[in-house]
Amino acid sequence: MKKYWIITFGCQMNRSDSERIAAVLEDSGYQPSVNLPEADLILVNACSVRQSAIDRIHGLTPKFKELKAKNHKLKTVLTGCVLKKDKKKISEKFDLILDINDLPELPNFLQASDYKPKNKNYLKIQPKYSTDFTAFIPIMTGCNNFCTFCVVPYTRGHETSRKTQEILCEVENLAKRGYKEIWLLGQNVNSYKFGEINFPKLLKEVNNVKGNFWIRFTSSHPKDFSEELIDVMASCKKVTEYLNLPVQSGDNGILKKMNRPYTTKRYKKIIRKIRERIPNITLSTDAIVGFPGETERQFQNTAELFKEIKFDMAYIAQYSPRAGTKAANLKDNISHQEKERRWKVLSDILKKTALEKNKQWLGKAVEVLASEQKNDFLIGKTREFKTTKFKGSENLVGNFVKIKVAVTLPWGLKGEII
Questions:
Q1: Are 189 and 222 in contact (CB under 8 A)?
Q2: Per-residue confidence band for 115, with pLDDT thresholds at 50, 70 and 90
Q3: What phi and psi values does residue 181 have, to the nearest 5 degrees?
Q4: CA-to-CA distance for 346 and 395, rounded, in angstroms?
Q5: DSSP character for 126?
Q6: Is 412 exposed, middle or buried (0-12, 13-18, 19+ CB in 10 A)?
Q7: Contact 236/215 with Cβ under 8 angstroms?
Q8: How far out from the chain centre does Cα 339 lie?
Q9: Rounded CA gap, 95 and 77, in Å?
């Protein structure tokens, strides 16, 4: 039997896509390879958000050439988020570059004549889930926002929402199989719209599905974050107390340059309303330092916003030009050293606020979904998405466990099973 190996770059959406890729391959007679050299097919699921990811793919291709010299039947495929200009540069290094929307056609390339795709919509493919307790469900794909630093609208296209019933059927099947955690995914989940069903209404529908599971979602955009959504998050018991809401910058001038159509005042108002309705919510954000033209004063506005909001977690990126975006036409006038300094300033603020927030959990009982075992310790997340470490047996992986918090750290908790 032929074997495959999938290399996934990027976000949870790409991880979800890889689960569908695996399903197509296994329906076509392939099985997972235990290691890269044994594979007959190597499929790279790309992320184009940052240039560094594309650079890493270029770095992989010499290895592919070496493997092909030993296995002349080896095929290589590139899919995922790939810009047209990148496809031209890298096309000779892969046997096939496949648009992710054309995933049902992959078996034709692999000459699996006994497999016929049922539809052209790759999101209808039943995925091969990576675990039997956590599942990622795309509810929409694409983006209409055109942030000046992002290529997603060019690689994923305009926003397209899945049929509500398709999503609910997937959730119902997972709930019946005992899944404990369901992520609803999209480049901008807040803009989900199918008929009369918007994202808050979809959340309600998913919450009403029978079963003992948590609901999480990502990614959200502040411009679409409504009071209706806040009310639903507060009232639906399965929706967990965790939110990632990217701010990107704490300066209105930089936000305008980024084509982020909200102000820091609007962002703070959303956070205030969320905390009023869900006091114990964990808040994370995304931020970029060193965006073209960012002055010290503008950076300090971001630092002040971090101090004021007191995030539990943040994904802080140092700006790097991404060819194909509007921001790439701006002069990248902030030095690498200065970007490093600004990154460290925000990281130091975050470390203090994260520890301050985590101290509130000391001595309290929390529910943790154990996800892995490492060196006799189990690691998992609380409803509030706090990483928690505790002693326990491997048979608890994939189950909810009650833990009493004994130690608090900036990036997580430690405790004991109650």
A1: no
A2: very low
A3: -145, 125
A4: 39
A5: P
A6: middle
A7: yes
A8: 24
A9: 6
- Domains plus CATH for the chain? 3-109 (3.40.50.12160), 129-359 (3.80.30.20), 362-417 (2.40.50.140)
**Token digits for 251?**
């300066």
Task: Give the DSSP H or E segment for 192.
Answer: none
Q: Please give the structure tokens belonging to residue 374.
A: 């490492």
**Calpha distance 213→193 (Å, rounded):** 24
How many Cα neighbours within 13 Å face the side chain of 418?
13
Alpha-carbon gap, residue 330 to 309, rounded angstroms: 30
Residue at 74: amino acid letter: L
Q: Choose the weakest-confidence range: 89-103, 183-197, 248-262, 271-285.
A: 89-103
What is the token pair recorded at 24?
């197509």
Q: E strand or H helix at 382, and its extent? A: strand 377-382
Alpha carbon distance 7, 57 (integer Å): 10
Q: Are 418 and 403 in contact (CB under 8 A)?
A: yes
User: Is residue 269 classed as helix, strand or coil in its secondary structure?
Assistant: helix
Sign of the torsion formed by the C-alpha atoms of 139, 143, 148 and 152: positive
pLDDT-derived band of residue 306, with 50, 70 and 90 as boundaries? Answer: very high
Output the pLDDT for position 198. Answer: 98
Report pTM: 0.89
Q: What is the largest CA-CA distance in the chain?
A: 63
Residue 291 CB: number of other CB atoms within 10 A?
Answer: 27
Residues with Cβ within 8 Å of residue 69, at least 6 apart in sequence: none
Please name the amino acid found at residue 195: G
Percent of the chain that is helix, strand, coil (3-state, to 5)? 40, 25, 35
The DSSP 8-state label assigned to residue 208 in this structure reads T
| 257 close to 293: Cβ distance less than 8 angstroms | yes
